[in-house]
């Protein structure tokens, strides 16, 4: 009767062990499914990457580099989750193999002596919560980092030879994409042999702006260009530029003046980060 009782207890506990092992297999399946979802997340990020790359092929290399950086960060995060899950799978599989081998090689009495420990280990593994996929997935979206577009135009300064000392001429007002109203001011200071060029904020919120001026010349090497990055507040600092952009003698001697007595000034303006706080002036006589 004792052997029969032992046989029944053994069989019952082996069945319980198999049930526990089956629960572990189900647990592993859930983790494997999570890995598959991570892989799909990776595929979707790459797919979005390819779609975005097609969209930005005509855009500057800096935009592509920004996209690659975003993708790298997302994939690195996903790979980190995947490697952690795979490591967990390996650990559980190892524990499962050891416990199965221990049951298979143990005598009845030895198994019964170990059963509590085995069941406790199975339960301990299952008690470790599986992460929700929502906690580890990354957004399947990417931004194309496109530099702010310049507002570009040409200010034709007419009847230049008739300018008196301290004469000021203004371009037509124009707007940028952020609702600011601007105009270009040219200041002729004959007594100092200087032509000054300025950008003026006519209306709009204070802002940092980058402005590039180019005095056009038929010979590209003689194009004069200078650039500023400045803060415009619309009040005391509503205009910035160059008091000594070019000498009047240079304009007359080097044929910048057109046959119709006009100068052509090309301008490019765009908002810039506040970090660009210093004035940046290029060198005259060199084309961009």
UniProtKB/TrEMBL annotation:
<dbReference type="GO" id="GO:0006513">
    <property type="term" value="P:protein monoubiquitination"/>
</dbReference>
<dbReference type="Pfam" id="PF22486">
    <property type="entry name" value="MATH_2"/>
</dbReference>
<feature type="domain" description="MATH">
    <location>
        <begin position="150"/>
        <end position="269"/>
    </location>
</feature>
<dbReference type="GO" id="GO:0051865">
    <property type="term" value="P:protein autoubiquitination"/>
</dbReference>
<dbReference type="GO" id="GO:0005164">
    <property type="term" value="F:tumor necrosis factor receptor binding"/>
</dbReference>
<dbReference type="GO" id="GO:0031625">
    <property type="term" value="F:ubiquitin protein ligase binding"/>
</dbReference>
<dbReference type="GO" id="GO:0016235">
    <property type="term" value="C:aggresome"/>
</dbReference>
<protein>
    <submittedName>
        <fullName>E3 ubiquitin-protein ligase TRIM37</fullName>
    </submittedName>
</protein>
<dbReference type="InterPro" id="IPR002083">
    <property type="entry name" value="MATH/TRAF_dom"/>
</dbReference>
<dbReference type="GO" id="GO:0061630">
    <property type="term" value="F:ubiquitin protein ligase activity"/>
</dbReference>
<dbReference type="InterPro" id="IPR008974">
    <property type="entry name" value="TRAF-like"/>
</dbReference>
<dbReference type="GO" id="GO:0070842">
    <property type="term" value="P:aggresome assembly"/>
</dbReference>
<dbReference type="GO" id="GO:0005778">
    <property type="term" value="C:peroxisomal membrane"/>
</dbReference>
<dbReference type="InterPro" id="IPR053003">
    <property type="entry name" value="TRIM_RBCC_E3_ubiq-ligases"/>
</dbReference>
């Amino acid at each position: 009767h004792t052997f029969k009782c032992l046989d029944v207890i053994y069989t019952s506990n082996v069945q319980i062990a198999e049930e526990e092992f089956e629960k572990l297999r189900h647990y592993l399946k859930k983790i494997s499914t999570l890995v598959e979802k991570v892989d799909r997340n990776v595929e979707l990020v790459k797919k979005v990457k390819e779609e975005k790359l097609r969209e930005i092929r005509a855009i500057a290399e800096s935009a592509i580099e920004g996209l690659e950086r975003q993708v790298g960060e997302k994939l690195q995060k996903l790979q980190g989750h995947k490697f952690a899950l795979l490591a967990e799978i390996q650990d559980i599989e190892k524990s499962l193999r050891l416990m199965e081998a221990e049951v298979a090689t143990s005598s009845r009495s030895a198994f019964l002596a170990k059963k509590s420990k085995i069941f406790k280990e199975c339960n301990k593994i299952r008690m470790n919560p599986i992460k929700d996929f929502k906690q580890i997935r990354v957004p399947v979206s990417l931004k194309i980092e496109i530099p702010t577009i310049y507002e570009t135009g040409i200010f034709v300064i007419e009847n230049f030879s008739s300018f008196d000392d301290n004469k000021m001429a203004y371009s037509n007002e124009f707007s940028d994409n952020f609702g600011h109203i601007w105009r270009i001011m040219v200041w002729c200071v004959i007594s100092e042999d200087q032509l000054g060029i300025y950008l003026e904020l006519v209306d709009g919120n204070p802002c940092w702006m980058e402005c590039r001026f180019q005095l056009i010349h038929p010979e590209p090497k003689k194009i004069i260009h200078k650039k500023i990055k400045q803060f415009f507040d619309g009040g005391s600092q509503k205009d910035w530029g160059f008091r000594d952009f070019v000498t009047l003698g240079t304009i007359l001697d080097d044929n910048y003046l057109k046959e119709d007595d006009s100068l052509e000034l090309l301008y490019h303006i765009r908002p810039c980060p506040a970090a660009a706080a210093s004035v940046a002036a290029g060198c005259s006589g060199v084309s961009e």
